[in-house]
Amino acid sequence: MRIDLHVHTTASDGLLAPSALIREMAGAGVQVIGVTDHDTVDGLECALAAARRAAVTLVPGVELSAYWGRIEFHLLGYAIDPAHEPLAAFLRGTREARHARMQAMVNRLWAMGIPVPVAEVFDAASNGNVGRPHLARVLQRHGVVETLDEAFNRYLGTDRPAYVPRPDVAVAEAIRVIHQAGGLAVLAHPGLQGRDDALPDLLAAGLDGIEVYHPKHGSGLVSRYRRLAARHRLLVTGGSDFHGAPDRAYGLLPGRPGLPEVEFARFSEAIRVRQAG
């Protein structure tokens, strides 16, 4: 069984609409798909309908951005109730913050002599859940940069001249919101942050699992996070972080890496227990 618990659609910064994403994943032989768009659940209804047509299993999810001190982490919420009102209120707040942040970043680019049409950036995020990848694509389209990586390295990455930090959401708050919506909270791609010293605080906040398998995790990191998960009795998850984008440095192939079936069995049992109350 091929299991991929980390993919994105046009509801956030992916390039494929939810139905097209499910077709792409099913065509690649993926049988269990976790749709985890950034700070939104808007794509889940269409993805669920497409999963039924394709006879694959959909795990409804979300990827929340949150901070531990000044370090940004991403928390994957799995088996959430997309209609849960406290979650919906939380996501409305993050969407408003994304809009304000994007306007501030575009203002910085204008001050640098790079007149980016802000309306074009918002149009690139068809549902309004705008993020830096949308701005990077507009910069690429206008010839300011050649690649998305260049946009982040020169302008949009942390501490780059057009970067504006998000309003703080604490990791403990993100975990609480996921739990309130009936879900499991998993730390996404911890190897990208390299801040394992945050783990005690995440555990105290109720972290349920670690994303061990990710395109940016080599064999050494996979072994490291497997050991950490075992030591702290955490669930193990994994996925391709697929965005449908050939010019990204990761997430190019659906289902690669995937999650081993034995870990998915533990994950599924944890969902059953959580939903049983």
In short:
The protein has about 280 residues and is α/β, with parallel strands linked by helices. The chain folds into 2 domains: about 5-85 and about 170-275, Metal-dependent hydrolases (TIM Barrel, Alpha-Beta Barrel), CATH 3.20.20.140; about 90-155, Orthogonal Bundle (DNA polymerase, domain 1), CATH 1.10.150. It has helices spanning about 20-25, 45-55, 85-110, 120-125, 130-140, 150-155, 170-180, 190-195, 200-205, 220-230, 260-275; strands spanning about 5, 30-35, 55-70, 70-80, 185, 210-215, 235-240.
What keyword list fits this structure?
seven-stranded mixed sheet, TIM Barrel, 2 domains, globular, 44% helix, 277 residues
Shape: globular
Strand order, main sheet: write it out: 1-2-3-4-5-6-7
Low-confidence sequence ranges: none
Q: Domain count, please report it.
A: 2
For CATH, the homologous superfamily of the largest domain is named as: Metal-dependent hydrolases
β-sheet strand percentage: 15-25%
CATH topology term of the largest domain: TIM Barrel
CATH architecture of the largest domain: Alpha-Beta Barrel
What does this structure look like?
With 277 residues, the protein is α/β, with parallel strands linked by helices. It has two domains: 3-85 and 170-276, Metal-dependent hydrolases (TIM Barrel); 91-156, DNA polymerase, domain 1 (Orthogonal Bundle), CATH 1.10.150. It has eleven helices and seven strands. The protein has helices spanning 18-27, 44-54, 85-111, 118-124, 132-141, 148-156, 171-180, 190-193, 199-204, 219-231, 261-276, and strands spanning 3-7, 32-35, 57-68, 71-78, 184-187, 209-213, 235-238. It has a seven-stranded mixed sheet with strand order 1-2-3-4-5-6-7. Helix 10 (219-231) links the parallel strand 6 and strand 7. The radius of gyration is 18 Å and the shape is globular.
